[in-house]
Fold this protein.
Amino acid sequence: MDNNILEIKNLQFSFRTYGGVVKSVRDVSFNVRKGEILGIVGESGCGKSVTSQCILRLNPEPPGFFEGGSIKYRGEEIITKTDKEMRKIRGTEIGFIFQDPMTSLNPTMTVGKQIEEVFVGKGNMTRKQKKERALEILRLVGINEPERRYHQYPHELSGGMKQRVMIAIALVGNPSIIIADEPTTSLDVTIEAQILDLLMELRDKFQTSIILITHDLGVIAKMCDRVLVMYGGKIAEKGTVDEIFYETAHPYTAGLIKSIATLDTSKEQKLVPIDGTPPDLFAPPKGCPFAARCEFAMPICSEEQPEDHRLSEEHICACWLQHEYAPKVSVMKGMEVQK
Amino acid sequence: MSKTAEQREPLFEVTDLCQYFHIARGKTLKAVDHVHFTIYKGETLGLVGESGCGKSTTGRCLVKLYKPESGTIKYRGKDIFTYTKEEEKQFRKNVQMIFQNPHSSLNPRMTVKDIVGSGMKLHGLATDKDVDQKVEEILKEVGLNRDHMSRFPHEFSGGQKQRIGIARALAVKPEFVICDEPISALDVSIQAQVLNMLKKLQEEMGLTYLFIAHDLSVVKYISDRVIVMYLGTMVEFADSEELYQNPMHPYTQVLLSSIPVADPKLVRKKKRILIKGEIPSPINPKDCCRFAERCPYATDECRNSLPPLRELKPGHFVACHRAGQF
């Protein structure tokens, strides 16, 4: 397909540490299309942040290193680019919204300076043009009194404001992809709703693609067109948002959906937790990373890695249950068929 | 809750509680402002609100971590600030707290056995001889085992640490436990484990909970009655089913409609109320409805006088001048 602007194939990324090599991302493939919101969901340590930071080469190398795979942005390979070449991509081609607005802004620089910093070494804009562009972008992300905010320092702003400034920085270079790493995790629900609406609006206005990383299935349901579910450094399931929620195929996805309390959960109902803890990526298990916690696990699950099974054009699930010889079960209902 | 109010035994009675912090001359941060509620034995009272609304401060007042500016807190009919030494010790045993961040609320230099066991020894619930066995019993309750006893907190994952925190609170056989955001620092799949465990322990040990959280779905799931706070004041107080079915305060309505629901089809249908602006500062607040600035229904009355908490339906309290009109 032609409207893929980012193609990631068999990406493997690891870190060398004193404890050994941590295989954070193991064989991840996906693509991003123009104007879509792609969600990546998973627990802490599942590799979702590392994957997204690979795209902009933001992981420190060393200790991190690519073990294999390719990342192609508009047909150009990212992995082999030098630092200098990367600087041309960061900010202007691909923008990044960091997780924690409280700590990712520079406390010693004014808001205006930080936004204009994106233009350093790019093109020949005059000071006045830069300032105009910065003010324009501040207005766009819904910051009141942009003229005053321009001269303020981050500590003078509230959490929601800081996150808006982060979004402004990611947007100011007119990128074609924005990577948002848990953009609302540290915010209150009413502010979260405002920020998510803003991201949606920006997508509709500029046809920017957004990669949205989160652990909150509610945010995924609200925002995304397609979803990747990651577990233990691998993609467990991917598909359109409806396929993930209504035609759930992977036991881990089902576990995630079943374990959250929603407003419709009655008090008598018990939440179904996923027992156990995520795998240790120093020594990833030989077979499926989820096998140890999976209620459907079969002998083969801990022996061999499951292949990707294609269920529909978009829907892919890496689970042995999809194999033609496997017993047919409903992952949402659980082992015993209830009433 | 089939029992009527008369039959229920009140455990905590909080009357007109105010907790102010004087941060500079002429600057007062009103963290908790005229809060009024009763907690009955065996129930779970939920306390929700956004950051800075005073929910944690309220919880901390109940365990005497702060000395309130004014108002009284009675535990089993007696003011907690008039205790004798012996009563104080009993109170400290009966009222326990589970903290928000398991990574910072366990002493890194103490083994699990000491963390859980020292309270037991202090209150005479265990002796040097049988403390091992007693600690083992309580660890089993929270899903840990004997091997974990001699380890230090850094050797555990977040979920396990929170279990240790819970074991510590329950080791002294309390009647009342304040859970201050016990699951917000945990991963989604671990949250359900801890929630289920808290529910199970409540049934087994007949505990009463004050459950503080910002996640409305979780609070609804675990609580019998819920208080919604905004900027230090109580805005709504009702049975949890009633509150979620029939929210009367505009702020509660906004909160409920802002929760991201994990169901794409429902999200597309859902009508949303959006509010502009952010939570104003709690320093020297104006003497009016705290929500008036952001409220879509605010009138001049709202901007000039503080609405009292009114009982609009039996057991359903709302602090809004215009409640019921929209």
